[in-house]
Every structure is written in structure tokens, then in C-alpha cells.
Amino acid sequence: QVQLVESGGGLVQAGGSLRLSCAASGRIFYISDMGWYRQAPGKQRESVATITSDNKINYADSVEGRFTISRDDARNTVYLEMNSLKPEDTAVYSCNQLVTEWGQLPRNYWGQGIPVTVSS
């Protein structure tokens, strides 16, 4: 099995920055897609940013130009640099990685979710 460990969330003032990290561990052969998702209370979970193994990146319109997603394949880690944070960015952020374990078919894994609160 694979586990994702997330870190970097917290409380920040509007206009501030946070950097989220998500590291996968386990019998990992290959990780293709990685991404960050978020869900605010009463709202649907939405994709924030995704990155493929060849660094094709997609951002939600609401974060375009403010957030940067990157990956470190040597560490099985995906990062989300969040700048110019707004109160509407407040949500629980979850990491997703599409992982191929040794001898297995690829499957999606999710982190537990970390809260990000942006105060005004």
C-alpha cells in the first residue's frame, strides 16, 4: 500500500503565502499524475492544480497566476506554492497521486487533507 503525507497548511493572512507538500511512501514503481484538490464547507471538491509526469500542468481559473504546482520525482513529492492568498482560498486541501506500485496496476491515492485558512 501507499500512503501520502501532507504538510504545510495553516492560517495565513490575505495576501500571504503557503507551501504545501505531499510525499508518497510505499512500494512505488512510478507516479504519473499528481494533483491538489480542495473542498470548502458546503461546496464540491474542486481541482486546484494537476501535473503530469512530463510536467503538463493545469490550474483552476481561480488560482491561475497565483499558485504553482511542481513535483520532485526522486522524493515522490508534489508541492503547491500558494501566493497572494485570498479568503476564498480557505478550504481543506488534499493531495492525489496516481501511483503504480511494484507488480500492480496504477491506482489513485489521497492524502488525509490539510486545512488552509486565509483571514481577511
Description:
The mean pLDDT is 97. It is built from no helices and eleven strands. It is elongated. With 120 residues, it is an all-beta fold.
Q: What is the share of helical residues?
A: under 10%
Query: How can the largest sheet be summarized?
Result: 7 strands, mixed
Q: Please provide the count of β strands.
A: 11
Number of helices: 0
Distance between the termini: 40 Å
Strand content: over 45%
> Which ranges are low-confidence, i.e. pLDDT below 50, for 5 or more consecutive residues?
none
Please compute the radius of gyration using only Cα atoms: 14 Å
What overall geometry do the principal axes of the alpha carbons give?
A: elongated
Q: What is the H/E string?
A: EEEEEEEEEEE
Please give the structural blueprint.
Layout lengths: L1 E6 L2 E4 L4 E9 L1 E12 L6 E6 L5 E3 L7 E6 L4 E6 L8 E11 L5 E4 L3 E6 L1
Which features does this protein show?
single chain, 120 residues, mainly beta, 7-stranded mixed beta sheet, 4-stranded antiparallel beta sheet, 61% strand, elongated
Quick structural summary:
The protein has strands spanning 2-7, 10-13, 18-26, 28-39, 46-51, 57-59, 67-72, 77-82, 91-101, 107-110, 114-119. It is mainly beta.
